[in-house]
Structure prediction request, 1457 residues.
Amino acid sequence: MTERDFPDVDMTDERATVDLVADEFAERFRRGELPSVTEYVRRYPDHADELQDLLPAVVMMEQLKKKDESQLESLERQAAAANVRQLGDFRIVREIGKGGMGVVYEAEQQSLGRHIALKVLSPTALGSETSIARFRREAETVAQLHHTNIVPIFGVGEENGLHYYVMQLIDGQPLSDVISGLRERSGSLPPAGRSSRTQAGISSQVDSGSTDRSARAAVDAAGTADSPLDETLIYPKVNSPRLASETNHLGSDATERASLRASATERLGGLLRTEDYWHSVAEIGVQVARALDYAHRHGVWHRDIKPSNLLIDDDGIVWMVDFGLARLAEDSELTQTGDLLGTLRYMAPEQLSGKFDERSDLCSLGLTLFELLAFRPAHAATLRTQLLQQVTEARPRSPRAINPDVPRDLDTIVLKATAHDPAHRYQTAGELADDLQRYLDGFPIKARRVGLVEQLLRWQRRNPALAATSLAASVLLLAVAVSSTWGFVATREAYRQLENEQQKVIDERDNVRLERQKAIAEGLRAEENLDFALSAFEELLGEISARSSAISVDFDLEDEDLSSVTMTTIPQEDADLLLRLLDFYKGFAEKNTGSPKAATYAAKAQHAIGDIRQRLGQFDEAVAAYDEAIRQYAEASTLVTDPVEFTTTLARLLNSLGVAESRRGDFRKAWLAHSDAHEALLELPGDARSTTDSRFLLAQTLNLQSSISLRAGLDELPPPERPGFNSPAGFGRDGGFAGRGRGFGFFGGDGRQPEQRRPEGGPRDGFDAEDRQPGDRGAHDGDPRHPDPRGRDFRDRDSGPSRHDGPDDPHRPKARPLAWLFSARRDGDPERWFDRPFDQRDGGDRDREGRSPGEWKNRDRGSDGRNGPRESEGARGPKGPQGPGGLPGEVMDAMNSAQREARSLLTELVAEVPDNPRYQLELARSYLNAIRSPRPGSPGRDGKAVRADLQKAIAILDGLAAAHPDDDVYRIELADALAFSSPELERFEPEEAEQQRLARSVEIARELYAKSPEVSRYADRLGRSLRALAAAQSRSGNDAAARETLRESIVVLQQAVDDRPGQFAYRFSLARTLEDTARLQRRSEQRDEARKSLERAISVIQSALPELDESEPPPPPAVRGMYGMLITLLKVADRHEDADRIRDRLKRFSPDGPPHSGRDGYHPNRPDGPPRFRDGDPGRFGPPDSGPRRPGPPPERPPSAARDQPAEKAPQSTAEPPPPKSDDRPDNRDRPESSATE
Amino acid sequence: MTDQSPQRPSEETPELVNRVIRGDVAALSELFAIHRPRLWRMVNFRIDPRLTGRVDADDILQEAWLRAVDRIDSFLRDASRSTFIWFRMIVTQTMVDLHRRHVGAQKRSAAKEFSIHGGWSSDSTSVSLARHLLGHLSSPSAAAMRAELSSQLETALSTMSDIDREVLALRHFEELSNSETALVLEMSEQAASARYVRALARLRHVLEAIPGFMDGGKA
Prediction:
C-alpha cells in the first residue's frame, strides 16, 4: 500500500490496495476488456500472492454476471430462441453468433439440403407491428440485391412469432476479428485500452500474457457467453494449421491465440508492414465501396457498416451483411449499450441527428478502413458518452498520425471519406471505389488533403460555440501525445516500460486520461508524429492569429502609441485556446532539453510561447520566451543543415523579440533585437539574400527598426553601422552588400564558432568598407565594420557566448557603436539612460546636427507628441549627446536610409510579385512609418511629402481592402492610415479634405465595430477616429459637431474599456477623449461639465491602476505611463496635491529621481492623429503650443515643460513647478517618464 | 437508437439534483434513467426465482419509479448521501412488497429478506449468489452436476458470513462502489473495503473446496 504501487489511482488510506486493484480490474472487465491477472500480479509485487489468489475470483464473478445478464436480459428471447430446433423448413444445426438483433444459426434447409445462415430476430428487436412490417419490407428489398460482395438474402419468414431471415452461409471471418488479430501482431498497442469487443477478440485477449490457470479457465468459460457489447453475427470457425508457424515467424507471442484466427487474419498479417498490406486494405475498401455503390443505386442504404458486419472469406472476398437492418434498431427499444457502442463507433456524425444518406455509409466505411490502417478505432472511447462526443465532435483523424507507415494517399482517402461534413466526403461510393482503385493502380488519387487550418475552420463553422473548449480539449490530447513523444526518444525502452506501467494504473474511469494514455502509446510509435503535431499547432496558432483579424500574422507593430501598452485584441475564446496551447508548449519545452535536436524543438516551442504571450498581451513573458527560444536555437546551431533557414528563422525570432520588447516599452532592446535581425540577414550569402522571401524579411526588419527607433525616440541614437543602411547598393538583389562575418549566423564561412569567425578587422568582401560613407562612422572610435549593436544587452539575454563576441576577443572591434554611444552619454551608464528624465540627458546640447532648435520644434509643434516620450522629447529637445559631433545626424540619416531602403525593397518586391498582399501591406506601412516619424531629412517634415506618402499608403490599403473584402486586417490598417494626422499635414491639407479623410476612417471603423463588437481594437479605433474627427471639426469652428462626435467616441471607448477592463490602452483613449471633451466644455464655459469630464477621465485611469508598493519592483512601463497621465490629468483638474503625492511615490522607485515625468507618460499631442483644437483654445486644458498651426514653441524651454506650461488663463494649474530649477528637478522631470510611451 | 441522443444526460449533475429538489419530475426521471442500469442489475440479482415469469425486472422498476415520484418531496432529506442509494432503497421496498404479494409472506418474513435499510439479508443473498454462481454451468455435463453442486455450493456459501456474501453481491452483481457499499451496509468505507477483500478470499476458498467447480467453470 505504498504510493509507488499506485501512482495514478486515487489513494486513500481507507481502502486496501487489493481492493483498489480489484476495483480497477473489475471495472475493466465491465468495459469489455480482459485484463490479465499476471499483469496485475507483476505490477503489484507487494501483493502478488493476494492478487494471484483473488483476482481470479473477480474474473469469475464478473464473467458470471455477464452471462447472467445476457441470459436474463430478455427472458422471452431466451425462451424462444434457446429452444429453437426447427423453424419451418430449417433445421437448426448450431448457433454461430449472437447479437443485439438476434441470433444467427447455421441451419439446414431441408427441402434443398443446403446449409444456410438463419438470423432469428430477437423479439425485443421487433417491438411493434409496424417495425415487423418494416423488417419484412427491408429484407425483401435487400433480397433484390445481387452483388458479389453482398451476402444474399434468400427470404424472410415467421414461425411461432419468431421472425427470421435466411441468407447464404459464409465461411468467413468478420473484419473485426481480423483487426484485433492484426493489432496483436502489429504490436502497435499495449494490451490495455482495447475497445473492440468481438467475441474472438475477447477470448483471445483474455489470456494475453496470462499464465494464470484460473483466470484463463474462468474467461474461457465465458467464451461462449455473448459479449453484450457488440454483435458478431457470424462466428469465425476457420482454423488453419499452417498459420501457427507463420505467426511464430512474425514474432507474435500469441501463437495460441493466433490459432484461433481465421486465414484472412493470417493472410493479411503476413503482409503487415509491407506495401501489399496497404493494397489489401485498399482492395477491401474497393469491394465494399463497389457493393455500396450498387446498393445505393438500388435505393438501399446499409446504415450499419462496421468491421463486424463485413466478413472476409478465404479467397479475400468481402461480404457485407445486415443491409438496412440497423433501422430496426432505431425503432426498437434496444437499450443494451453494447449494441449501440458497436454501432456508434462507426457512425457518421450526422446519423446522430437522424440524418442519413449514402454518404453516411461512406463515412462508416472510412472509419472501418481507418481501423484497418491504424489498428485502432478512429473513435476509441469506451464510454458511451465519450464516444458520442467523439463521433459528433471529433474532426476526422488521420490514420497516418497513428501509424506513420500508412501511405499518404490512403490516408488522404480515409480522411476524405470520413470528413465531418458529408459535403466534403466522396459524394458517391463509386467515387470512393474509384479513388481506391487509382491508389491500387498507382495513379494519383483525386482526393486532396485538407489543410489543418481548413479542417479547423470547417469544424469551427459547424460548432462555433464549442470551438474554444472542445477544440482545445482535442488539442490537449494531441499535445500530451506529442510532448510525451519527444521526451521519450532518448530512453525509448525504459520509457515504454514506464508508459505501459502507468497505463495500467491509470484511473480508467477517467476517459480523457485513458485517451491520453492511448495517445501516448501511439505517440511512442513514431517520432514523426512530433513534427506532424508541431506543425499542426503552428498552423493552429497562425490560424488563431489570422482570425483575430485585427492582428496581422506578421509583425504588426502598432503604429499607435497603444503599441506600448498592454493590448489584447483577440476574442476571449481565442485567448482561452491560446492559454491551452501555451500549456502544451510549456510542457513541451520543459521536456525537450538536453540535446541539440531537443533544443530545436524547444526553441520552436518557446517561439510559439512568445507568440502566444504576445497575443495575450503578456509582453514580459513573451520577451522571456523569445530570449529562451533564441538561446535554444543557438544551442541547436550545430545541427543546422540549412543555414539559410537557420538565419531567417533567427531573424524572425529576433524580430518577434523586438516587437515584444517595444510593446512592453523597452525600445532600446527592441531596437537592438531588430538590429540583430538585420545583421543576421546581412550575413546571408548572395543567392539566398536575393530571394523574395529574404528581401521581404529584410524589408520588414528595416521597417520595424525604423518605426521602433522613431517611436522610442531612438532617433537620437546612432544605429549600428550597417553598410546596408547607407550604401547605395543596400540590400539588393545583386547580393552585393557586405557579408560582414559578424559571427552571428552561418555565413562566416570558416566553420569556426561564431566568435572565432570574425574577420580580422576587415570587411570580408570589401564592400562595406568601400561603400560606406565616411561620415557614417568617422566619428566612431570603434571599428565600424564590426559593430555590435547588441552591446551588453545581448549578454543580458544570456544568449550564450557562441552568439557573439566576447569582449576579450582580440579581433573584435573594441567598441560597439551602441555601447560607445552609451558611454558617450555623460553619466556613462547606458543601462540607465533610457530611464533618465530626458532633460538630464539632453544636457543643453541643442545643436543636434546643426539644426536650430526652431527647426526641431517645427516638427512637433502643436502636436500631441503622443508617440512616445523619447521621440517627442527627443524631437523637441535640442539635446544631442555630447559625444563626437555629428552623431545624431548620422543616426537620422541612417534611419531615414533604412526607411528608404525598406521602401525601395518593398517597391521592388511589389513590382516583381504584384499579387502578394503582404508585400503591399508592408509597403503601405513603410510609407506610414516615414510620415509618422518625421525626422530631419525625412519626408515627414514636409507637409506636401507627408500628404503624398499618406495618399500612397491609403491607395495601397484601399486596393488591398477592396481585393480582400473579407479580411479585416486591411480595413483596420486602412482606418488607421486614414486617421493619420500630423502638424505638417495639417498645414498642408485642406480642412475639408482632412475631415473627409477622418470621416472615412470613422466609417470603416464603425463597420468593423458593428461587425465584430467583441474585438476591442475596433472599438478603440472607432473611438480614436471619432476623436480625431472631433478635433478637426473643432478646428474648423464646428464645436457643436465636435461635441457630438466626442460623445459617440466616449460611448464606444467606454464599451471597449468595459469589455477589457485590464487593457490600459483603451483607458488611455477614453481618458483622452474625456479630456478633449472637458476642453471643449471649458471653452464653452460649461465649467461644471468640464470638471465632471475630467474627473471621469481621472477615474477611468485611476480605477485601473495598482497601488504603488515600494517594496515591489518598479511598476511596468505601461503602469508608469498610466501614472504619468493620471498626474497630468490631476494637474489639469487642479488637484495638485494628489498629483504631487503620486509623483512623490513614483519617485521612490528611482533613486535618480522620478523615473518618469508626467507628460512623458502621456502625450496628448501626438504628431499623428490626436485632436488638436483650433487656435485660441483656452490653454487651461491644453498646452499652449498645442495650437496646431502656430509656428513654434518657445525655443528656450524644453518642450515638455513648455507643454505643461499653463495656459494664459490658468497659469497656476500646471506651471506650478517653475521651469528648470537645478536643485530640485524641473517639473518635467517630476513627472513619471514612461519608457512605455503609453 | 433514439435513446442515445446526445442530450441525454449520462451522469448526475448538481443541476439535475437541484431540479429534483425543486420537485421537477422530469429531472427525477432523468436521474432514474441514469441509475436504471444498476438498479435493473440489482433487481435481476435479487429477484426471487419464484417471481420470474410473473414479474420481471422492468415491472419492478416501473413500480419503483412511480413510488419514487410519490416521494420526490423527501428526496432532499433521504437522498442526501447518494441518489443511487435512495433509488435502490425504493426499489428494494418495491421488491419486498411484490414478493409479499406474489409469493406471500407465509414462508418467511419479507421484511427479513429485505431489510429496509440495508436491503440485504443473509438468506436471500446466499440463495441469489448460489443461483448465479451455478448459472454459468450451462453445458450439458455441467447441468448434470448442477443439482449436486447446488446444494454443495449453498452449503459452502452459508459458511461465509452474511456480510461477506453481501459485500460480494453489492460490489460485483450490483456494481456498487466501495463507498456505496459502505453506505448500504452502514459501515465505514475502510471496513467495507477490508470486508470486500476478505470476502473475495473466502469465496475463492469456498469455491476451491467444491470438487469440480473450478474445473467445471473451465470446461
Remarks:
- Chain A has 58 helices and nine strands.
- The two ends of chain A are 60 Å apart (CA to CA).
- The first strand of chain A starts at residue 86 and ends at 87.
